[in-house]
Design a protein that fits this description.
The protein has 189 residues and is an alpha/beta fold. It is 60% helix and 14% strand. The protein contains eight helices and five strands, in the order βαβαααβαβααβα. α1 packs across α8 and α6 packs across α7. The protein starts with a strand and ends with a helix. Bound molecules: BIS(adenosine)-5'-pentaphosphate. BIS(adenosine)-5'-pentaphosphate (AP5) binds next to α1, α2, α3, α6 and α8.
Length: 189
Amino acid sequence: MKTIWVIGGPGCGKGTQCSKIIDKYGLLHLSSGDLLREEVASGSSRGASLQELMSKGLFVPTDVVLSLIKERMDKARQDGSTKTGFLIDGYPRELEQGLQFEKDVCPVDLILFFDVKNDTMKARLLGRAAVSGRADDNEETIVKRIEIFNEKNNKIVEHYKDKVVRINAEGTIDSIFNEASKALEPLFS
Ligand code: AP5
């Protein structure tokens, strides 16, 4: 089973591409943001503290997000809900998260990096804001999320340069998916 991380700034299209990738390759999609939003929606006390950080565009503690991901991976390994592996979307956000994952969970096989300009991220998120209902889809928080991404992501790309495939994600959804498929094909052929 393969483990693939999907990285890229807010609104670069990680979630959009992951939906297409899982349809083609049968991977289990684990979105860190979705898992955290589920935790908030559950009404747990852990969820309440997460909401405050997320609505400001700040990172939640690594141990929280990593344990949510690991729990789902362990469960899927037991119940056989994926035969090909895991597509981890939105993790790691900083190098230390990647190192912690490899120590506590398993090695990563490939990292897809969807690369777009800051203006593109902002425009896509402002476009989504009208329908998403997300507390962090407002201009002030979007700018903060982009700033944090730019501060942290380079170290991940540098450290894992042999595993990172950088994909220009400025184009159409289908053309980007085509590039992602080319990167993934060798893992599954
Ligand atoms: P998360 O939910 O992961 O948010 P994000 O990284 O900011 O990314 P988004 O989900 O907003 O965007 P996306 O890249 O998936 O783009 P999408 O496909 O939706 O995280 C939220 C928060 O949780 C974080 O800020 C943090 O607080 C916390 N968190 C999460 N992970 C964490 C971690 N590991 N550690 C600590 N904290 C963590 O597309 C966006 C829009 O663009 C859509 O409307 C879409 O239709 C459109 N679009 C997509 N592709 C294209 C295209 N090619 N052309 C035109 N439009 C497009």
